[in-house]
Amino acid sequence: MSDGQIVVSGLTKQYRRVRAVDNLSFEVQPGRVTGFLGPNGAGKTTTLRMLLNLVKPTAGTATIGGHRYADLHDPIRTVGAVLEASSAHKGRTGRNHLRVVAASAGLPASRVDDVLELVGLTPAAKRKFKGYSLGMRQRLGIAAALLGDPQVLILDEPANGLDPEGIRWMRDLLKGLAAGGRTVLVSSHLLSEMQILADDIVIIAAGQLVRQGSVSTVMDSMSTVARVRVRTPDTEKLTEALAGGEATVEPGPDGVIFISGVDAPAVGAAALGAGVLLHELVTERPDLEGVFLELTQGKAAIR
Ligand SMILES: Nc1ncnc2c1ncn2[C@@H]1O[C@H](COP(=O)(O)OP(=O)(O)OP(=O)(O)O)[C@@H](O)[C@H]1O
């Protein structure tokens, strides 16, 4: 098994009234950014906390490289986590904060300047934490998580409170870390952002798995909601050619027609068979936001 693979298996957390996580299983691969998505209260934070041994599961297991977090030989060098906007002693500079963290974790002080550079905080290293913006605090949190040069990075809602520039920076950093072979697991409810950032996605709702796979696989699994956009000078003939099958044809603006129930190759074949000229034949997929809403519909409102 790869060192950086995360395996969640039958994971369950029952609080007194709420089943926060319900028999959840999924895998996260190294070398990829995995988006962990769900509406508010879906159980994302609870899952990440169980993965990091901060919350005890009611049932099931969560392992990193085949080991539970509690059994890792060198957790600091294996997993870095940013669970909430970093807090630090207000009067301490960013650099001193990281020095303290490094020393208490038995890591060399030389790593401090490396990670400051990596997160772009070198110019602010000597400024006091109390003067840091939320974006700078996020960067400092990530810097602390990277001190041990871990194989696995886990971030809970890292884009929260970041401006567009900060979000772009975060995206580039995380993609770069994954490209270097690390496992990057990022929770979010910012679906549009995950569509750009993530290679794989795990979608949960009401503590249960809804979908997992590459972004494109999950989109493809929603082919029922994809539609084919067609432009042809002979709408009637094409509609006739498609009649009697699964296809539903609806008129769109400017002479376009939308066909659902069949895919683009089927429409193309029907057109060819009927001798219909096509000017446009495009598969239109809903964006991740639409897929997400459809997949989690109803479940978001459960709690
Ligand atoms: N310590 C706790 N005691 C009781 N219930 C809890 C506890 N922690 C979380 N919960 C409940 O478990 C459910 C899942 O919460 P969790 O924070 O894991 O969701 P989330 O997906 O991270 O949501 P958000 O995006 O809002 O943080 C919620 O209903 C929450 O109220």
Automatic annotation (TrEMBL):
Q: Which GO terms describe its molecular function?
A: ATP binding; ATP hydrolysis activity
Q: Which UniProt keywords apply?
A: ATP-binding, Nucleotide-binding, Transport
Q: Which Gene3D superfamilies match?
A: P-loop containing nucleotide triphosphate hydrolases (3.40.50.300)
* Domain spans labelled ABC transporter: 6-231
Please state which protein family the record places this protein in.
Belongs to the ABC transporter superfamily.
Designated name of the protein: ABC transporter domain-containing protein
Q: Which organism is it from?
A: Virgisporangium aurantiacum
Classification from the root reads: Bacteria, Bacillati, Actinomycetota, Actinomycetes, Micromonosporales
